[in-house]
Input
Amino acid sequence: MAAGKHSQAGEEKAASRGQSEVNRKLKYISLAVLVVQNASLILSIRYVRTLPGDRFFATSAVVMAEVLKVLTCLLIILLQKRCNVKETLFFLVDSIVFQYKDTLKLAVPSLIYTLQNNLQYVAISNLPAATFQVTYQLKILTTALFSVLMLRKSLSRVQWVSLLLLFAGVAIVQVQQEGKKEASVSDSSNQNYMAGLVAVVISCLSSGFAGVYFEKILKGSSASVWVRNVQLGIFGTALGMLGLWWNDGAAIAERGFLFGYTDMVWCVIFNQAFGGLLVAVVVKYADNILKGFATSFSIIVSTVMSIYLFGFHVDLLFTAGAGLVIGAVYMYSLPKAAGGSSSSSSSSSSSASSTLPRTAGGAEMEAFLPKAQGGVVSPPPAVHATD
Output
């Protein structure tokens, strides 16, 4: 009998070691996915927006990404219902139509996310990719401030220091860019550095507010992650179409919705639509520190690739500013010391992705946090993490 218990204990220990090994591998896979998605989206948008020739309409790309996300989430829901179309339709009607008050709550964040997605195209079209990646980390600061003001959440001293370092780093990068802008920006009449800077600042403000507002209105909700994405996508598509008509209606009526679309443009749209969903799946295996490291590493990757792809010039001032931002992101992602405030800042959740992006909140709200990749809601994490 003793031998049997010993054997069972050994098997449990071996199983535990095996599960630990699997989780460790999943963490590294999550890190790779986060880095590749964060860096590739920004670099690819920058690339297609600076190519010579006809430019596609950014408003149409935003709408197309929303449509693809909705269709993907609907397919996932259908598969969850074991391809029972009737049951899926009843489920969607009940979740979206009959519970209309819950659905309408998402109108405001969806409006903000749609604005944010369009602003990101404006910003990346006018700013060097590395500069955008660094500056966009201001969303950590805005989300933190909105969390303190709207949710009465507290930040640790280390987090406050990291926010000051973050602001200082971004300011240094802007000073450097004012003195020595990227050649492609200064030489091209189609690019306006100030317009790009204003766009990224407004995008950071909207990202911070939307994430905290999202948490505030949806606290305690038990709706499916994929249903939330469908609800957001419906509003996002409608609002995106309105923005498309307002800004590019006449031109699209003349040239067509898919004007300027190339294989590379389709890659950008698919990256924006499916990349965010992919991150939503893997992010539950990444803890705060890993996601902070992923964001920092994404900045380095974007900077290095910008040197080769766009002739971006890195000097001492940019290196110092970017270094401060990378350090601040990592510091902010560190867990609070024992005995500190029990409330966790929702802002660290939003900061992990540079994209697009929808992201803020405590562990109980992980299913509803925004992603920078274009407004993808992620599922609840398996470990303590925010995104």
Notes: The CA atoms of residues 15 and 207 lie 42 Å apart.
